[in-house]
Amino acid sequence: MTEQELFAQISGAEDEAPDRREGRNGLREIAALSMTKISDGLIDPKLVLSWLLNALGAPAAFVTALVPIREAGALLPQILLASKLETLTRRKWMWAAGAALQGLAALVIAASGMLLEGWLAGLAICAALAVLALARAACSVSFKEVQGKTIAKTRRGAVTGTASSLASVAVVTFALLLLSGLLQDRGAVVAAVALAGLLWLAAGALFSTLKEPASEVEDSSGLPPLRATLREDADLRRFIAVRGLLVPTALAPPYIVLLSQQGGEGLLGQLGALLLASALASFLSSYVWGRLADRSSRRVLSAAGFAGAASMALMLWLLWAGLARAVWAGPAVLFLLMVAYHGVRQARSTYLVDLAPEDARGRYAAVANTMIGSILLLAGLFGGAVSTLSAAWALAGFAVVSAFGGALALTLREVERG
Questions:
Q1: How many CB atoms are located within 10 Å of the residue 64 CB?
Q2: Which of 22, 249, 356, 362 yields a CA-CA distance of 20 to 30 A from 146?
Q3: At 269, is the pLDDT very low, low, confident or very high (cuts 50, 70, 90)?
C-alpha cells in the first residue's frame, strides 16, 4: 500500500482522494504529532511532574506553580510568535525548532530529577518547564498554518484524531505499568521524562521533512493586530467566546479528583489511575471526534460542551447520593469528562484552521490562544477561590459555564463546507 493510499484510508477520503504529496505529508504529520502527544502524556505537569517534585522533596510552592507555568507559557506568547511566523517562507521550521527545544527542556527536567533535590530541583524543573511551554507555544502557533497548507480541509481532523489515538496507546501502557507497581520509583519516572525528550527531538526532525508550499513573507515588525483582527471578524469573536466557555472541560479534572478523595477513596490520587483514565478517553474518542469534526466542528464543540457539563453534574449527583466513595465512581466520571475534553480539543483546532483565511492561520491561532490564555488564568483563579468554600460549588459553576458553551457553539457558522 502506498503512502497516498494509506492516508486516504485513514482520512476516509471519499469525494476527492489525496494526491501523493498530501499523502506523504499526512502520514508524517500523524507520526510527528503522535510522538509529541506521547511526550505530553509522559511529562504531564498535573500528574507526572507533580509526583516527581513531591518525590524530590521540593517545596509545595513549586508543585502548585507547575500547571500555571505550563498553561500560561504555552498560550500567552503566541501573539508575539505569530509576528515572527509571518516572516518565514517555510513555516514548518518554527514547529520543528519548537519540538526540538521541548525535547531539550525535557532532558533538563530528567537530569534535574536524577541529580537535584529539594528547592534546587523545584527551581530547575520549573525553569525548564517554562522553556518547554514557550517552545510549545511556537509549535501551536505554527502547526495550524502548516497543516492548512499541506492537508485538505475535510481531512485535518483525521490527522490530529489519529495521532491522539495512537499516542494514547503508549500512555495507557505507561499508566498500567504504574498501576502494577513496576514503575513506582523515581528512576522509572525520570526515564519516562527522558524518553519524552527524545521523542520530541525525533518529532522535530521528522516534521522538517514535510513538503510545504512556500508562504508569502510579510513585514511583521510590530505585534499582530489583535484588536483589529477581533474587530474585523465576528466569526472569530464568537469562536473565542465558545472556546472560553468550554475551558471548564480542561480545569474540572482536579475537582473531580478532590471530591472523590473527600469521599474516602484514594484511587484517583494514584498517578497511574489518572493517566489511565485520560489516555483511555483519548484512545477511544479522539479519532472519532476528529472525523466528526471534519464534517461539522461546531456540532462537535456543542456536543462536547454538553457532555462535559453532564459529566460534572453526574459527579455532583454521586456526591449528593453518597456514591462518590465507590471505587468506580471517580474514575468513571473522570473518563467521561476527558472524552468531552478531547472532543473540545479536536473540534476547536479543526474549526479555527477551517475558519482562518489562507496565510493568516498563525495569526488567528495566536489571537485566539492569547485570549484563551487570559481566560484560563481568570477561570483558574475563580475556581480556586470558590473551591476554598466548596469544591462542589466550583464544579457546579464549571458545569453551568460548559453548558452555555455547548449552546453557543450551535450558533457558530458552518465552516467545513464553506
A1: 12
A2: 249
A3: very low
Which CATH number belongs to the domain containing residue 415 in this structure?
1.20.1250.20
Count other C-beta atoms under 10 Å from residue 264's C-beta: 9
Question: In the chain, what percentage of residues exceed pLDDT 90?
Answer: 33
Q: For residue 338, what are the domain limits?
A: 225-418
Q: Residues 310-321: pLDDT tens digits?
A: 999 999 999 998
3-state secondary structure of 45: helix
Task: Indicate whether 351 and 402 sit together in one domain.
Answer: yes
Residue 404 pLDDT > 90, yes or no?
yes
Say yes or no: 45 and 88 in one domain.
yes
Report the pLDDT value the prediction gives residue 107, as an integer from 0 to 100: 98
Based on the fold, state whether residues 204 and 71 are members of the same structural domain: yes
pTM of the prediction?
A: 0.74
Buried b (16+ CB within 10 A) or exposed e, 211-250: ebeebeeeeeeeebeeeebeeebeebbbbbbbbbbbbbbb
The residue with cell 524518553 is 195
Integer Cα distance of 268 and 258 in angstroms: 9
Report d(CA 49, CA 108) in Å as an integer: 13
**Final residue in a domain of this structure, among 219, 234, 249:** 219
The 10s digit of each residue's pLDDT in 241-267 is 999 999 889 878 877 776 776 444 444
Same structural domain, 184 and 282? no
- Between residues 63 and 241, which one has the greater pLDDT? 241
Start-to-end CA distance of the chain, whole Å, equals 32
Q: Judging by beta carbons within 10 Å of its beta carbon (0-12, 13-18, 19+), is residue 19 exposed, middle or buried?
A: exposed
Please check the confidence at residue 86 and state whether its pLDDT lies above 80.
Answer: no
Count of structural domains within the chain:
2
Distance between CA 117 and CA 114 in Å, rounded? 8
**Mean pLDDT over the full length of the chain:** 83
Question: CA nearest 325: which of 393, 261, 253?
Answer: 261
Residue ending a domain, choose from 219, 234, 250: 219
Tally of residues, the chain: 418
Cα angle 244, 250, 251; round to 5? 95
- Residues 361 and 82 sit within 8 Å (Cβ to Cβ): no
200 and 233 co-located in one domain: no
